[in-house]
Amino acid sequence: MARSFKAARERNPYTIAALRASLEVLDRFAQQEAWSLGELTQAVGQGKSRVFRIVNTFEECGYLIRDEVTGAYTLGPRLAALGAVSLRYEPLRWQAVPPLQVLAELTGETAHVGILFGTEVVTVQLVEGRHDVRVHASVGKRSPAHASSLGKVLLAYFPEPEIDEYLRTAELTAATPHTIVEPARLKQHLQEVRAAGYAIDHEELELGLRCIAAPITDHTGHVVAAVSISAPTIRLGPERALILVPKVKECARTISRMLGSPMLAAGAR
Question: Do residues 100 and 113 lie in contact, with contact meaning Cβ atoms separated by under 8 Å?
Answer without folding.
Answer: yes
